[in-house]
UniProtKB/TrEMBL annotation:
Phosphorylation of dTMP to form dTDP in both de novo and salvage pathways of dTTP synthesis. It comes from Citricoccus nitrophenolicus. The gene is tmk. The keyword Disulfide bond does not apply. Residues 5-193 form the Thymidylate kinase-like domain. InterPro entries: P-loop_NTPase (IPR027417), Thymidylate_kin-like_dom (IPR039430), Thymidylate_kin_CS (IPR018095), Thymidylate_kinase (IPR018094). Belongs to the thymidylate kinase family. Coiled coil: none annotated. This is Thymidylate kinase. Pfam families: Thymidylate_kin (PF02223). ATP binds at residues 7-14. It is an enzyme of class 2 (transferase). It catalyses: dTMP + ATP = dTDP + ADP.
Amino acid sequence: MFIAFEGGDGSGKSTQARRLADRLRQAGRDVVLTREPGGTDVGERLRSLVLDPAHAPIDAVTEALIFAASRSAHVRQLVLPALAAGRTVVTDRYVDSSVAYQGAGRALGPDTVAGLNEWATGGLHPDLTVLLDVDTATAAERRAAREQAPGGAGPDRMESEPEAFHRSIRTAFTDRAAAHPERYLVLDAGRDVPGLADEVWARVEGLLGAGTTPSGPDAESVR
Ligand SMILES: Nc1ncnc2c1ncn2[C@@H]1O[C@H](COP(=O)(O)OP(=O)(O)OP(=O)(O)O)[C@@H](O)[C@H]1O
Ligand SMILES: Cc1cn([C@H]2C[C@H](O)[C@@H](COP(=O)(O)O)O2)c(=O)[nH]c1=O
């Protein structure tokens, strides 16, 4: 099973992805918890390149290609081999983040960016995408609190964008979920962490019982 968490910066994806991975492990599943950009050596290098605000400005097309390149490596080197070995993959962000941030936020167009990522992933879609939807003010407060906590890092290149950018992203995520309701669980991420985790688990438990397989190609057909 392949599960993605999506949402704006500070919506609570990492928190919920970790909780789900723990719960799946308690249920006896062999889990790979991973993230984008990242998840592989090349992906983590691309992550620091594209997110570090100290780097030179990156134009929107180049930015979209960097995220897609990280994703291609992630799918081919980590996700597909793990799924083929019967493992459950939980990823903190996937294609929808590119459609929202580069398609809407950078105005490259959702269809253009979705098409690029169909190619990058060989058409691999998650069984379930959990969209954590929260208003941008709440998300910004959470990010600020996280930055001020011990060891907290400053905002990355995307987080530094203005409120309107983050609002456009939120809309793009919810539009995409509305277009494919069968593979989304959209949650009000303004609520408490344990309550959200229970809602996620209820849906995932149902999928475990149904014995799903990811839609799209297997490792043999994605090169
Ligand atoms: N439901 C929640 N209610 C209140 N605070 C939360 C909730 N979920 C997460 N948080 C807190 O908000 C901050 C951001 O959470 P988290 O890092 O999980 O978000 P994220 O979506 O992964 O963020 P980013 O995309 O910026 O990495 C953390 O300090 C976390 O403890
Ligand atoms: C996968 C992906 C990510 N982004 C942006 C979204 C976030 O601002 C950062 C990732 O940081 P996080 O702490 O891991 O959430 O990158 C993007 O713009 N496009 C993408 O495809």
